[in-house]
Amino acid sequence: MTQLLERAIAEAQKLPGPEQDAIAALILEQIADDQAWDEAAPHFHHLISVYGEWANAASLHGGPRARPVPPVNELRVPKEPLMFRPAFGTTANVSAMLERSVNRLRTTHLALGLLPGLPPALTRASLDRFVSEVVPELT
Predict the structure, then answer these.
(1) Rounded CA gap, 59 and 74, in Å?
(2) How far apart (Å, rounded) are the C-alpha atoms in residues 131 and 110?
(3) Per-residue pLDDT tens over the stretch 9-47
């Protein structure tokens, strides 16, 4: 993905910046310390399975096919790259993942994705921690 993005920027002869094209990164996050993966994995699995189905439907018209989605218990350490790399875990882990992602892709905008089906109380707790603990650390 990074190589594709870099090639597109080079071909357009533009660099992202305030007056240039924006580059947004979608980050799926769940902050919940030790239990974040256990809470989020089934919902993340559902989300990437649906996106995979859409990608495969599009492949019928010439687009690339999505890789098979691994079982829920293999998502944390997948054997092959996933469609999305989620940011689940402690505040420190999520902050570090965001920093790496933003720097690697020269991101100008961050889009925070929430997981469908996750109980609202867990989503709210994660969002509250994101706003109070992660956002102040973003540069």
Answers:
(1) 25
(2) 13
(3) 677 665 555 555 677 888 899 999 889 999 999 999 999
Q: According to the model, what pLDDT value does residue 47 have? A: 94
Look at the chain and report how many structural domains it folds into.
1
Which residues sit opposite 26 in a β-bridge?
111
Instruction: Give, in degrees to the nearest 5, the angle at Cα 5 between 59 and 127.
Output: 90
102 close to 22: Cβ distance less than 8 angstroms: no
Between residues 57 and 42, the one the model is more confident about:
42
Name the pairing type of β-strands 109-113 and 87-89.
unpaired
Give the whole-angstrom CA distance, residue 117 versus residue 43: 6
pLDDT single digits (tens) 78-119: 888 888 889 999 999 999 988 888 777 777 788 888 899 999
Domain residue limits at 9: 2-13+22-137
Give the span between the Cα atoms of 128 and 122, in whole angstroms. 10
Q: Tokens at residue 38, please? A: 């256990």
> How many angstroms separate the Cα of 16 from the Cα of each of 11, 12, 64, 109, 138?
13, 11, 26, 10, 18
